[in-house]
């Protein structure tokens, strides 16, 4: 069984790679563990949503060591 859930490898990789620039920008310019607890909570929730988006495309349990 495949790591990529929908078997459309090319499209899946295209979609996931399109998030790279935005993701890099986020981590370069945003302090996730902000002193303000509300900001910290919101940013952690954003990261969780981001991870959940990837979970829709890839079954990480099938990657050795994951």
TrEMBL record:
InterPro entries: DALR_anticod-bd. One of its GO terms (biological process) is arginyl-tRNA aminoacylation. Residues 2-59 form the DALR anticodon binding domain. One of its GO terms (molecular function) is ATP binding. Pfam families: DALR_1. Coiled coil: none annotated. This is DALR anticodon binding domain-containing protein. It comes from marine metagenome.
């Amino acid at each position: 069984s495949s790591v990529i859930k929908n078997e459309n490898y090319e499209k899946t990789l295209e979609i996931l790679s399109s998030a790279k620039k935005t993701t890099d920008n986020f981590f370069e310019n945003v302090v996730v563990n902000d002193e303000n607890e509300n900001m910290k909570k919101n940013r952690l929730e954003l990261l969780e949503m981001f991870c959940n988006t990837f979970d829709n495309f890839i079954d990480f349990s099938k990657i050795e060591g994951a």
